[in-house]
Specification:
The protein has 472 residues and is of the alpha/beta class. The protein is built from 21 helices and 13 strands. Bound molecules: pyridoxal-5'-phosphate.
């Protein structure tokens, strides 16, 4: 190697080939991005981009190779990619082709189009959030919603908060702050996102008293654990797993009776808010999934459940039950910190109004769960035909969908999926390309192929998927 070559390949020469941030910013595409995203945001990307390229020089990228890459427009290409990611970042509509109906990563229940419209309308407007239009007086923001929950579940009263986790926190804090709360060892669950019962108890200011064993907890275990300090008997639906074999648990009815005898509130954290509305197609495919009215009829003081699971509405947490218990929760100052916003309330009210008017079968979650295998097969065939191209191997295969979000964890629903192989690419590469589509498409990978399950597709999704494949 002679001296002059060493000089032209030295890092200092390479560093000098990189443009200044201001030069990058002045390029036409960057100028357009500045108008769209803000100059400081684009500058941040230019800086980070140049940092990446300097790191490549530090790692041995020579001036000649660099010059070649710059000539080929690699730097501009990288900037375009960064700006495209910036434009496509954050929360946006996505296509769920995974077959998992309540997919927490994909925002759980999509709401009914009329509920979505109600939400959009109040978002951009003033709304009757806490004023009664007939009297002009101040009222409770969830008064109407609570009335609808009462009608749907048969509960005496209801209170609505941000999610079921908030409902659990509010219930424990209301009844067992500075006191003891009984919970079976078999129900010492983590509900995902590090929401662990023992931790929640502590944060709610209650002392957790573990009752029974992991697999068996009898009524006598609860009776023996009662002390003058007991404030609450909590039962938690073990929604995301099952204990099988030599098991025994105490029923809600038994606990409700114990609660009455000992003067203690019994709260049931049900999680999934299944309601069998009059005239609606029953969701038998969910097996023994407990529905809210049945749980209430067993006599517990309050049942807690989510809005965006089987209930099919926006994110929310409901406490439905006896008036005294609900009033106590309403008086808790913590309620103010956990209350719902007007947009969610509008969507929840509209969802319940539809369901109570006999239109529950139209709720997207219920329609997806109830979809017939024959109908799914026809939809899979139609999608497969639309995808047909030389670069793809497309097949319709039997597969299984899942309710998801801890609802009926052992239930698998028979479906037909479109199995796709992209010639010359791995299933992971195809999945990545589909996620980069606008809107992003999420799929399942099974035995080296991408599976698209029609069960979880909403109207218009199939066309968007064919368009995405055509652009590959
Ligand atoms: C899902 C679930 C929760 C948490 O509900 P979020 O609405 O997500 O806060 C609490 N308890 C049970 C039993 C659940 O299944």
């Amino acid at each position: 190697m002679d001296g002059s070559q060493e000089t032209t390949q030295s890092p200092q020469v390479a560093y000098r080939l990189l443009p200044a941030v201001e030069v990058l910013l002045a390029a036409p595409q960057a100028a357009q991005a500045c108008a769209e995203l803000g100059r400081e945001v684009v500058r941040e990307h230019c800086r980070a981009l140049l940092d990446d390229w300097r790191a490549r020089i530090r790692d041995g990228l020579g001036a000649r190779e660099l010059a070649l890459e710059l000539e080929q427009g690699a730097l501009a290409g990288d900037l375009q990619l960064r700006l495209a990611r910036e434009r496509g970042a954050g929360l946006r509509p996505a296509i769920n082709a995974t077959g998992v109906v309540l997919h927490t990563g994909l925002g759980r229940a999509p709401v009914h189009p009329e509920a979505a419209q109600a939400m959009a309308e109040v978002a951009g407007s003033f709304a009757t959030a806490e004023l009664d239009r007939w009297t002009g007086e101040r009222n409770q923001r969830d008064a109407r919603l609570a009335q609808l929950v009462r009608r749907a579940t048969g509960a005496e009263a209801a209170i609505c908060v941000n999610n079921c986790a908030a409902a659990v926190l509010l219930a424990i804090n209301t009844f067992a702050h500075g006191r003891e709360a009984l919970l079976s060892r078999g129900e010492m669950v983590e509900i995902g996102g590090s929401f662990r019962m023992p931790d929640v108890m502590q944060k709610a200011g209650a002392k957790l008293v573990e009752v029974g064993t992991t697999n068996r907890t009898r009524l006598a275990d609860y009776q023996n654990a009662l002390t003058p300090e007991t404030g609450l008997i909590l039962k938690v639906h073990t929604s995301n797993y099952r204990v099988q074999g030599f098991t025994e648990s105490t029923s809600n009815a038994q606990l409700a009776e114990l609660g009455r005898e000992s003067g203690l509130p019994v709260v049931y954290d049900l999680g999934s808010g299944l309601v069998d509305y009059a005239g609606a197609r029953p969701l038998d495919m969910l097996g023994d999934e407990v529905d809210v009215p049945v749980a209430l009829a067993e006599g517990v003081d309050a049942v807690l459940f989510s809005g965006d699971k089987l209930f099919g509405a926006p994110q929310a947490g409901f406490c439905a039950g006896r008036s005294a218990a609900i009033e106590a929760m309403r008086k808790n100052p913590l309620y103010r910190a956990l209350r719902l916003d007007k947009v969610a309330i509008a969507g929840l009210e509209r969802t319940l109004e539809l369901a109570l008017a006999g239109r529950a079968d139209e709720l997207p979650v219920r329609a997806m769960l109830a979809a017939e295998p024959a109908q799914l097969k026809a939809r899979a065939r139609e999608l497969a035909a639309a995808l047909d191209s030389d670069s793809l191997l497309v097949d319709v295969v039997p597969a299984e969908s899942q309710p998801g979000s801890g609802a009926a964890p052992c239930v698998f629903l028979p479906t037909s999926a479109v199995a796709v192989t992209w010639r010359g690419h791995s299933a992971e590469q195809l999945a990545r390309a589909l996620r980069a589509n606008d809107p992003p498409i999420f799929v399942r990978i099974h035995e080296g192929r991408v599976l698209l399950d029609p069960r979880t597709l909403l109207p218009g999704n199939a066309q968007a998927i064919s368009a995405a494949f055509a652009r590959l």
